[in-house]
Specification:
It contains two helices and 13 strands, in the order βααββββββββββββ. It has helices at residues 18-38, 44-71; strands at residues 6-9, 79-90, 96-107, 112-125, 128-143, 148-159, 164-179, 184-199, 205-219, 224-235, 243-253, 258-269, 279-290. Mean pLDDT is 82; it is low at 1-17, 34-42, 59-67 and 69-73.
């Protein structure tokens, strides 16, 4: 019987130090060895789950050293951001590959704050592209007294996993910092918007929305955090085409610019594209460059 090989790799597009290279190698080898210990023919979902367990173990064993190193080189300038890259691949009787890329940039010189965010995910099976998802978000906000903010944002999404060829969203409203005491923070956003959606099959959609978003962050240490962002969009036209998204992520830093991240994202459409399901989920493990 021919042997079936399997690889899981996590790559960064910039030069790293010897310590960061050792950390990345430990993470990748831990994933591969753990996968082969459980089954001779691993699947992509099992690779991700096993890498999640490896991430937790490495976080517990390496977080103290990373916290000490990162805290000594912290920069509190107006610019901040991150870039992440993940890759899961299997080869043998079947070839599959899932590739993910994302980034976020924030500029906060004073009372104004600019946020930009992009993400990209694609899946190939036997060298054939099966699905692809692209998204971009631009958000501008201004702080006022009494924990209040005014915000406006615009987004673009192409999600072939859910049958969405193009989705354009605009939204504006008020935000309230409900919790602003370390180590916890909670921001609530409420506003109104417009969504225009082009679908691969069926009728296109154009609807007014009432939007509610919650952003929570728990700083577990100086260099590790648990975050969650949940968003609900109510359909003001018919009331039936409402949407919900929720993303939970755990991040731990091992140096001043390199972190490990495990995230789970859920997307729900109450009226999905014909032939597609209402719910999509993405579970990923990635290396993150912070700047």
């Amino acid at each position: 019987m021919p042997q079936t090989g399997s690889r899981a790799s996590f790559l960064m597009p910039y030069s790293i130090s010897s310590d960061e290279h050792m950390i990345a190698s430990r993470f990748g080898h831990a994933c591969v060895e753990a996968v082969h210990a459980h089954t001779p023919r691993p699947q992509p979902l099992m690779i991700i789950r096993t890498c999640t367990h490896a991430f937790i173990v490495m976080t517990l064993t390496g977080g103290v050293a990373g916290a000490q190193q990162a805290s000594e080189h912290r920069d509190d300038g107006p610019w901040s951001g991150s870039a992440e890259l993940s890759l899961v691949a299997t080869s043998g009787n079947s070839n599959t590959r899932t590739f993910g890329l994302g980034g976020e940039v924030t500029y906060a010189p004073g009372t104004w704050r600019w946020l930009g965010r992009v993400s990209y995910v694609e899946t190939e099976v036997d060298d054939q592209l099966r699905a692809r998802s692209q998204s971009a978000l631009v958000e501008i906000s201004r702080a006022f007294p009494a924990r209040l903010e005014m915000y406006g944002r615009a987004g673009y999404q192409r999600d072939l996993f859910a049958g969405i060829a193009r989705r354009l969203t605009t939204e504006g409203g008020l935000a309230y910092n409900a919790i602003a005491t370390a180590p916890h923070s909670l921001q609530l956003l409420a506003g109104f918007g417009v969504t225009r959606e082009q679908r691969v099959v069926g009728d296109n959609r154009s609807l007014g929305t009432a939007n509610v978003t919650g952003r929570y962050r728990w700083a577990l240490s100086e260099t590790s955090a648990l975050t969650e962002e949940a968003a609900f969009a109510a359909d003001l036209s018919t009331g039936n085409d409402w949407r919900f998204t929720n993303e939970v992520a755990a991040t731990a830093a091992f140096s001043t610019r390199l972190s490990l991240k495990v995230s789970h994202k859920l997307s729900y459409l109450n009226e999905p594209v014909p032939g597609f399901r209402k719910t999509d989920t993405i579970l990923s493990a990635a290396l993150v460059a912070n700047f």
